[in-house]
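pinned: reference chain
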Amino acid sequence: MVTAPKLLVIQPDESDPIGPLGDWLTEAGAELDIRLPPEQSLPADLAGYAGVVCLGGGMGANDDAAHPWLADVRKLLAKAAGARVPTLAICLGGQLLAVALGGTVVTGDQGPEVGPGLVSKKDAAWTDPLFADLPLMQDVLQFHNDAITRLPAGAELLASSPRYAYQAFRFDRCAYGVQFHIETTQDVVLAWARQSPEMAELTRPDALTPENLARVHADITETWRPFAHRFVRLVSGDLAPAADRQRTLPMA
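pinned: its structure tokens
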């Protein structure tokens, strides 16, 4: 009997549930343990977990004064990366992963990035086990004020966009951070727009209509559902992680 790989899912904010991404992970065979801090405590270590998923939220990655438990999230993400536990960190989660590993996150100098958008693969993505099979341009949903402005040392850039360059990265062999959302639903995005009308106003007038969001989420499902399945294969050991980066000595 094959045991389902258990994923720790960290949900920093009630407003950003795992949504369809959770369905894609479970249909690929994963078992989810969803924790919503600070009400639900995080495990002290990752014993018993085959992988980690960290979702988004309305707070900042460095907002420890208002949310002191963020430090525990960063420590756990750093532990996962250090132990080569496959990790997928989304939006705020990706920012927390970047900061935990020595990168920088600040308020974006190009303003908020809001609504449906496209990100493009970078060179390293073409040989990455999760990103290689994605199309050149990927449909995503953006809703963030802060941005990653410096990747952790040694991280590989996997996707970019004209406004903010660091849209997706991999640290070491299997810790992934993405700046965008792939887990949303039409209703979740509409709720965000109501909660943050000043951000919603920055996108195209028709971008956040129910009709357009339904089309966008259908495209997101087509692209990112197979990606989620590959993540479960990575967690299960059925998909090899990225190769170690080659370190070459200068030629004499």
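why pinned: Residues 139 and 218 are 10 Å apart (CA to CA). The longest strand covers residues 113-121.
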